[in-house]
Design brief:
5-stranded mixed beta sheet; alpha/beta; 16% strand; globular
Length: 161
């Protein structure tokens, strides 16, 4: 069953692309954006948009985390190409994607299932406060940032799906 607004997220146990375990910072919000493949221009665009807005997110007490199932070496190359400074979780075992119910059928010519491009805003207690299912790579970071600002300034008190 897919996670939705108001649900508690599972513990994220995948390692980062640098091989170290991921530890969320206590008391901070998180943007978890799932993307299907590191070598595509859409995924790179989305990741770069988050990097460009990273200072704005951090100023609002929000951490950004990318999640993908490609091999670690592909993620490390992706990090370099996109010049990223936020964590990338390596979900090659697909545990997180399965827990979030995001796996699609394999792409043509591939055997592996990939996560759908979806984004979650998670509060410091681990509750999904926003969930975007129709994600446009070029607009995702800006859309999420506007939503965070609205939510944290009290303009939006509803949990939205």
């Amino acid at each position: 069953m897919p996670l939705s607004t108001g649900d508690q997220i599972p513990t994220l146990t995948a390692p980062q692309d640098n091989g170290r375990p991921y530890e969320p910072t206590p008391g901070r919000w998180r943007v978890l954006f799932f993307f299907p493949k590191t070598s595509t221009s859409h995924c790179q665009l989305q990741a770069r948009q988050y990097q460009a807005a990273l200072e704005d997110f951090q100023a609002l007490n929000v951490d950004v985390v990318g999640i993908n199932g490609d091999p670690r070496q592909d993620q490390m190359r992706f990090r370099g190409v996109c010049q990223l400074s936020y964590p990338l979780l390596n979900d090659q075992q697909q545990r997180i994607s399965e827990q979030f119910d995001l796996l699609d059928e394999p792409w043509p010519g591939e055997q592996v299932r990939r996560p759908r491009r979806e984004t979650f805003l998670v509060d410091p207690q681990g509750v999904v406060r926003r969930h975007w299912t129709q994600v446009e790579p070029a607009q995702d970071a800006g859309t999420v940032l506007r939503s965070v600002r609205d939510l944290l300034t009290g303009e939006s008190t509803q949990l939205l799906a």
